[in-house]
Amino acid sequence: MRCGKRQPLLDYSTLFLVVGFGVAVWLRVAVGGASVARSGSAGLVFAGALIVLTLAAGVPARPALRSVGWGVAGAVVLCVPPLLLAGGHRPGGAFLPWAAIVTVVAVAEEAFLRGALYESLVASRSQLVAVGVTTVCFAALHVPLYGWQAVPLDLAVGLWLGTLRQVSGNWTAPATAHVLADLAGWWLR
Amino acid sequence: MSRRPLLLGAAALIAAWVLVPSGVPLYDGIGFPDEPYRYAQPPAGAKTTARPGDAVGTSAGGNGASTEDLDVMSGEQGPQVEIFVSTGELKGPGDARTFRIQGTPVAPAAGGIPIDGNIYRITVGCSAGTSPCAANVQPPQTDRFVWVALRSTSSRNPSPNFLYRPTPAAPWQAVGTDRAGNDIYSTTFVGPGDYALTYATNLPKSATAPAPSRQGGLPLTPIVLAAVLAALAVIILVIRFSRRPSSRGISRTDLP
């Protein structure tokens, strides 16, 4: 029985996950310094921190093959605007090491945001709150990398990835979309 | 399954792209690998590239000093020069309203010490109303930074060293060098003039004030943050396992 007590905004577990996420972002900035946006080692440290938090919270639902289809469709939507607005490009450097790091970072982010944190928020609040909070967290983590000007776009992308999570019922879909969109960035600039 | 969330999500995405012009379709991950080094005057056999860019920036001033941090870098993918000046470190006359700093790539002259890549000529100035004025950078105070970073043409070892000369006619002096990234090296800004990297081992005599490092010592902040993160993970784990027995028979709403 609730006895008229108000439900806290976030339960302790969710609160610690959000705080841990903030610490992970701070750690990434501390490791990467002025070149945090380009630092592969800072990205891997960040991914490691998120994986630790995800494992502590309990890895949510196993990847589902059906969700991969949602993810591919989601990636197509993410890639259409840059495809229309940006010219073809290929930066110098080796693709494979870059792609490996990008994939690890993107999967770790999705496992934490649209996996552990999302599940925790759904359990304590609702799907709507889960999509909202993970969207804000997603945008916030990019501020040290790309500045405040990227916030509107990252909010929209976070919302899209959250929507994919909601409709597919699994974090595999946003993870697939996220990885594919990031990798497509090699040719779309 | 309702299509409404998908349509709303896609609409938000399109609106963001239309409202916020952005040339960066990279939603996450790490930056792209560096483009080939851009030479002011490409050596024989170097890849053809666009011309290297300047790093230019301005800061507001008040009471004869800059009133905001100034971080300027050139536009290459993997900026070839970056200059950082903390608030208050740019000094000028009391009525200076704007401070300006600029790093311009210059091709090294033949002969002399072999320079890696370009020389970067860094100038500092200010303006009081419509008139230009002379400005300089004071030696960094505690917790403040004034540094220059240059990208080398490769990340080979041993690392290159920083050189500085106040004017093109002055001899090069070796100054303190920190490795700030895979192929990025930094030094404390000792004054306007030319900055360059060299892989030569027969270095000229050091400048009189070679720069305290902006790094050095144990990386305390990352260690503390990693410890905090580990503690949080343990707390989350404890909460998770402490909830397990109750979740079998008692619903959340039954709890007091």
Task: Explain how this protein is built.
The complex is a heterodimer of chains A (189) and B (256). Chain A has helices at residues 12-32, 40-57, 65-85, 95-124, 127-146, 151-168, 172-184. With 189 residues, chain A is an all-alpha fold. Chain A has one domain. In chain A, α1 (12-32) runs parallel beside α5 (127-146), α4 runs antiparallel to α7 and α6 packs antiparallel against α7. The longest helix of chain A is centred in the middle third of the chain and has 30 residues, at 95-124. The relative contact order of chain A is 0.18. Chain B has helices spanning 4-19, 220-249, and strands at 55-62, 65-66, 70-73, 81-85, 90-91, 98-106, 116-128, 131-134, 136-137, 146-151, 161-165, 173-175, 178-179, 184-188, 193-198. Helix content of chain B is 18%, strand content 30%. With 256 residues, chain B is an alpha+beta fold. The radius of gyration of chain B is 25 Å and the shape is globular. Chain B contains two helices and 15 strands. The longest helix of chain B is centred in the C-terminal third of the chain and has 30 residues, at 220-249. The relative contact order of chain B is 0.11. In chain B, the strands form three sheets. In chain B, strands 1, 2, 6, 7, 8, 11, 12 and 15 form an eight-stranded antiparallel β-sheet that branches. In chain B, strands 3-4-10-14-13 form a five-stranded antiparallel β-sheet, with no helix packed on it. In chain B, strands 5-9 form a two-stranded antiparallel ribbon. The chains are: A mainly alpha (189), B alpha+beta (256). At the A-B interface, α1, α2, α3, α4 and α5 of A face α1 and α2 of B.
